[in-house]
Amino acid sequence: MDLAEICRVMRRRWYVLLPGLLLTAALTAGVYLVVPVKYQSQSTVGLLNSQKATVAFDGNPFLSTQTSLTGMADSLARNLNSDASITELKARGLTGIYQAMIADNAQGPLMWLTVTGTDKAGVLASDQILTAYAAERLQQFQTQQSVAPKAMIRMTTIVPPQNPVPQTKTRLQYLIMAGLLGFVLSMAGTFFVEARLRPHKLPPSVDDDADDVADANSDEQRTTGQQAVGEPAAGQPPAGQPTAGQPAGRPAPRWSKPVEEAQPDATETEAHRFV
């Protein structure tokens, strides 16, 4: 089936295709209204070495980076994602979904603090709450281990919480899925109706063939009977009329008869034998 045939079927069965397309549009609009736009805000924080460890670098913490800081960042991220931290952050007013993780392709102990939600203003406030809570949890870890204040690892904000950015990828995927599903179902219904209503030519049955053969045989027999009763065969004179060169009243010689008639029957053969 080519494109022209598809267009003809769609035009011929428009009363099936049109309601399907209208339902598809309604379904897509429903998905657009039901699936809200999500916003995302992200901040970047870094862990710095203690004041005591940076004495050799004139107090510059960015010149003193140790592998232990990356391990501490991983531990802090795991604690922030725990159920206890989720409960605490919800109590402080955090809304939406958040995630704490080590920054991708980071050259040092950097962390991403990300909050996702449907309320743009609430997402920004929640990211600020999460950033402040991460610094508190870092200090609580070290206080529980009785670490001296000058030996504590510190946290600094590299990138403050950013203005929420709309995340339309998921919503767009749902819209495309709804539109494609409705269109495919509409086309399937159109071609189903076309297949059910299109007239089909029935193949000739065995009975029809038998009737045709019987009619042909009847015509042939009728023609043969007419020739045997009233009409001479083609190329032969009527019955009782002598042929050319044959005297009247005498039978034609045997050699002039047709092959069928040249063969004597059994009675005539027996008579000649006795003579």
Descriptive keywords:
5-stranded antiparallel sheet, 53% helix, disordered C terminus, 275 residues, alpha+beta, Bacterial polysaccharide co-polymerase-like, 5 strands
Report how far apart the termini are. Answer: 86 Å
Report the top-level CATH class of the domain at 38-167.
Alpha Beta
Query: So what's the overall shape?
Result: rod-shaped
What is the CA-based Rg, rounded? 52 Å
Give the oligomeric state of the chains in this entry, treating copies of one chain as homo and distinct chains as hetero.
single chain
User: What's the total helix number?
Assistant: 9
Structural class: alpha+beta
CATH architectural name of the domain at 38-167: 2-Layer Sandwich
Sheet with the most strands?
A: 5 strands, antiparallel
Do you know the CATH topology of the domain at 38-167? Bacterial polysaccharide co-polymerase-like
Strand portion: 5-15%
* The CATH homologous superfamily of the domain at 38-167: FepE-like
